[in-house]
Write a structure and sequence with these properties.
The complex is a heterodimer of chains A (about 600) and B (about 270). With about 600 residues, chain A is α/β, with parallel strands linked by helices. Chain A contains 24 helices and 20 strands. Chain A has three domains: about 230 residues, Rossmann fold (3-Layer(aba) Sandwich), CATH 3.40.50; about 80 residues, no CATH class; about 240 residues, 3-Layer(aba) Sandwich (Rossmann fold). The longest helix of chain A has 18 residues. Chain B folds into two domains: about 140 residues, no CATH class; about 60 residues, no CATH class. Chain B is about 65% helix and about 5% strand. Chain B starts with about 20 loop residues before the first helix and ends with a helix. The chains are: A alpha/beta (about 600), B mainly alpha (about 270). Chains A and B meet through helix 2, helix 3, helix 4, helix 5 and helix 13 of A and helix 7 and helix 9 of B.
């Protein structure tokens, strides 16, 4: 067998006497293979990646790249040429101010003859579909485009393998698709070995070979079909099943004879097969867990923010003038759970920043309980207190020496007494699930990624907002942290806080929101319940937006003649509907 | 939006001056500075002016832009002019205010210094108007590379400048975001006295530094992964090459320098 990367019993620790980040791993990657490494944060998957091109050298064991030992210094540059690497943050890996120059960077380092460079650069940019951006500045590109430039930069060096270390974690769904598709093409057409590190299960199903990492070891390895039939173990490793696999397993639990499926197409086929043989006997639904209803918010003191014909133009009067939102009308009150969806650049963030007066409308008004917040004499602090705002990656705004002090920043700014501040900090920490006794005095920078984010959110909650705006609160988190965070948002909503959430995850929107607002080119084009909005699949796809996986499944099933009702957007609903259909009960109900 | 900010004052065009080798342009700027200092009489500024006008025309730069470039300096210009006007001693009194007086000599010197300053600024902006930041750092790196023999880090300096240029827009965007995030928590960056305002910057600066360090670490790793190991054995995509136009420009500049020196001698 022809192996490109071989790890033999490799261990690595960040500190000499610290715990192993990777311990005793043996792994061989065949030339031309397409492998994904899955694992929660801290499972050692990034460390594994960096061991494969000599960025980290093993404390024990051996790493061989094309037969070259990474521990031998003379091999370093040849190894890194053969094994290229794409990192997580698209901004932090581009060096030059022009795309073309950035692609040249690696070639320049190799000391290539300048005459050969332009041809190689053009080839690499063509392969990644970025040729038309060759003379653009990187900071003007989208995240997905930046990652494709980074891939071109690695590709130009004619590598044998490309390692992507969570290369899509910071991208929107479209960027994610772009990047993965480019790598699939390179694997197919150029025979480049791909090692793909991720915690997105939906990406993992597209790979032939999966490695699941847990606590520095490879805990599971196999095809997606093999790995995803171990839901209990995956859960223990902080991972989750892909939505469709989960649904197929739930159907199996209900008594249907169905194999675990990875994609909607497979599942639709399986269900259609069962449907043809209906009625099936002995199907039972597991008892549903009843979720407590949202508490009816008090009628008096109900807070409502409204945008009235709001237009916002950036840099008005300059040549760079651009209108981000145009004549937007939106009303949000306590009790709402509004999902704000739209393509990147559709104006979602601009709109959100009007809700608490961070941006002032170019025309139109923003009102809080009917009062114009930009009128003279209106205390801006009042709106900042009532409408909280959690930005994307909020942990980047932490600055204090202790968790407690950082969370108290808002209340202190409100001019509250020390006792009052203290009480609010306790309350906020409890809400987000941070422990007062052990974590209040800790530095926020010592917390893990997920907890750091919760600390930052606590800083906003300590202001006791009535409406909370969240800009992609789960971005970059692993499945478990994502689940915990969404549970927190739900709890806040149940306690009577109005929620406005910008999200690219339609599954999250379907699961949690009771209203969805779709933005396109700065205008609100839909404002309805998620059920109604996701029923318009075609219109959404035209805008470059997805529908929840279960909605897409519903459409596929109807195509195949299985009459699932439209407007089912949650997995539980579809499961119940399918069980009824398959046991032939649907007809009786209708009769 | 912040992301649209451009850097330096590069004015994109395809003129012959734009296409010149950046190394030559830097050399010509040095020559021009010498030229300005050789102009020791008012008449001697005529060739300097002619030279600048010729250069601007060949670079196809709008005159308005040249003037706009001086605008931020007008205070310094006026200040030095007045200072020279009143404090240079001379014989021929033109105006006596009692506490200070203006003489013919002081007027001459004041005008001369103001002109020098003016021409120096316009000459340097010629370089930045016609040379994009990347070729400029490239040119600097290669002009300074002989100094590597005395351990001057020419390559490292140029690399630092390139990276700085690359990251300024990113960091500006980040500053904007953090500022808004802290404002949302009731931070106030605008009111209060100096000390209060300086204190208010802490919640902005700490996250900014943390992020800049993280980015630096990430970038270093990404550069190493792409085989970066300093300037040694490194080739460049953009090969700098002097052509005929560069040598002609050099000859023309030398001729003007000679003209200035002769005029200065004759009118001294």
């Amino acid at each position: 067998m022809d192996e490109i990367i071989r790890l033999e019993n490799v261990s690595y620790a960040y500190e000499d006497d610290g715990p192993n980040a990777v311990s005793g791993i043996s792994l061989a990657l065949e030339r031309g293979s397409f492998t994904a490494v899955l694992g929660s944060n801290g499972s050692g998957k990034s460390t594994l990646a960096k061991l494969c091109n000599g960025l980290f050298l093993p404390n024990a064991g051996k790493v061989l790249v094309d037969g070259l030992d990474t521990s031998e210094e003379d091999n370093t540059w040849e190894i890194r040429r053969r094994v290229g690497m794409i990192f997580q943050n698209p901004d932090n890996q581009l060096v030059a101010t022009v795309v073309r120059d950035d692609v040249a960077f690696g070639l320049e380092n190799l000391g290539m003859d300048p005459k050969e460079m332009p041809g190689r650069i053009e080839w690499a940019l063509t392969k990644t579909g970025m040729l038309s951006f060759a003379d653009k500045a990187p900071h003007l590109l989208s995240g997905g485009q930046k990652q494709r430039v980074a891939i071109a930069g690695v590709l130009a060096m004619k590598p044998e393998a490309i390692i992507c270390d969570e290369a899509t974690a910071m991208l929107d769904p479209q960027g994610r698709r772009e990047v993965l598709e480019v790598l699939e093409t390179l694997n197919r057409e150029e025979g480049i070995t791909v090692l793909w590190i991720t915690h997105f299960m939906e990406e993992a199903v597209r790979f032939r070979d999966l490695c699941v990492m847990h606590e520095g070891e490879i805990a599971l390895r196999g095809s997606p079909e093999q790995v995803f039939t171990e839901p209990e173990r995956l859960k223990q490793y902080g991972l989750r099943l892909p939505e469709m696999t989960r649904l197929s397993l739930e159907l199996r639990q209900a008594g249907a004879d169905i194999r675990p499926c990875l994609t909607g197409e497979e599942l639709a086929k399986e269900v259609a097969r069962l449907y043809a043989a209906r009625p099936l006997k002995g199907l039972t639904l597991p008892p549903e867990k009843a979720e407590p209803e949202a508490s009816p918010e008090a009628e008096s003191g109900r807070v409502e923010v409204a945008l009235n014909k709001v237009t916002h133009t950036y840099q008005q009067g300059s040549p760079y003038q651009s209108t981000a939102i145009r004549e937007v009308d939106l009303r949000v009150s306590q009790g709402d759970f509004v999902a704000l969806i739209g393509h990147t650049g559709s104006g979602k963030s601009t709109l959100a920043q009007h809700l608490n007066g961070l941006l002032k409308p170019t025309s139109g008004t923003v009102t809080l309980n009917g009062e114009d917040i930009h009128q003279k004499g209106f205390d801006r602090r009042r709106v900042r207190q009532q409408v909280g705002m959690v930005f994307q990656y909020p942990e980047t705004q932490l600055f204090e020496e202790s968790v407690k002090k950082d969370i108290a920043f808002g209340p202190v700014n409100l001019g509250l007494s020390a006792e009052e501040c203290d009480e609010r900090v306790r309350e906020a920490m409890e809400m987000v699930g941070l422990d007062w006794d052990t974590e209040a005095e800790k530095s926020p920078f010592e917390l893990s990624g997920g907890r750091m984010r919760r600390c930052a959110i606590a800083g906003v909650l300590a202001m006791r907002p009535k409406v909370l705006v969240l800009d992609e609160p789960t971005a970059g988190l692993d499945p478990e942290a994502r689940e915990q965070l969404m549970a927190l948002v739900r709890r806040l909503h149940r306690a009577g806080t109005g929620i406005v959430m910008i999200s690219h995850s339609m599954d999250d929107v379907a699961r949690h929101a009771n209203r969805a607002v779709v933005l396109q080119k700065g205008q609100i084009v839909m404002d309805d319940t998620p059920e109604e909005i996701f029923a318009r699949e075609e219109a959404l796809r035209d805008m470059g937006l997805d529908v929840p996986q279960v909605s897409a499944l519903g459409a596929l099933l109807r195509e195949k003649g299985v009459p699932v009702a439209p407007r089912l957007i949650r997995r539980g609903q579809v499961l119940a509907a399918l069980v009824r259909l398959l046991s032939g009960k649907e007809g009786q109900e209708n009769a | 939006m912040l992301e649209n900010i451009t850097f330096g004052q590069y004015y994109p065009s395809d003129s012959i001056v734009h296409r010149m080798d950046p190394r030559m342009k830097i050399l010509l700027l040095i020559l021009f500075i010498v030229n300005v200092f050789c102009a020791s009489t008012l008449y001697a500024f005529i060739p300097v002016l002619l030279y600048l006008v010729t250069a601007v025309r060949y670079a196809r730069l709008p005159a308005k832009m040249m003037l706009k470039g001086i605008k931020p300096l007008r205070l310094i210009l006026i200040f030095t002019f007045i200072l020279n006007l009143f404090f240079i001693q001379g014989q021929t009194v033109l105006l006596d205010l009692g506490f200070a007086r203006v003489t013919l000599e002081s007027l001459k010197t004041a005008v001369l210094y103001a002109l020098r300053l003016l021409f120096l600024v316009m000459g340097s902006s010629m370089l930045t108007y016609t040379t994009a930041p990347v070729p400029l750092t490239d040119g600097l790196e290669r002009l300074l590379s002989p100094l590597k023999a005395v351990r001057f880090p020419a390559h490292e300096m140029a690399m630092m400048m390139t990276i700085a240029l690359r990251f300024i827009p990113t960091l500006l965007e980040e500053t904007d975001k953090i500022m808004k995030a802290q404002s949302a928590r009731g931070a106030d960056f605008e009111t209060g006295n100096l000390i209060r305002r300086a204190k208010a910057m802490v919640p902005l600066l700490v996250p900014l530094f943390v992020s800049a360090f993280r980015r630096a670490g990430d970038l270093a790793m990404a550069m190493e992964a792409r085989c970066y190991h300093g300037g040694e054995g490194r080739t460049r995509l953009h090969v700098l090459k002097m052509t005929r136009k560069d040598y002609i420009a050099l000859a023309v500049s030398l001729a003007f320098l000679a003209l200035t020196i002769v005029t200065a001698r004759l009118t001294a």
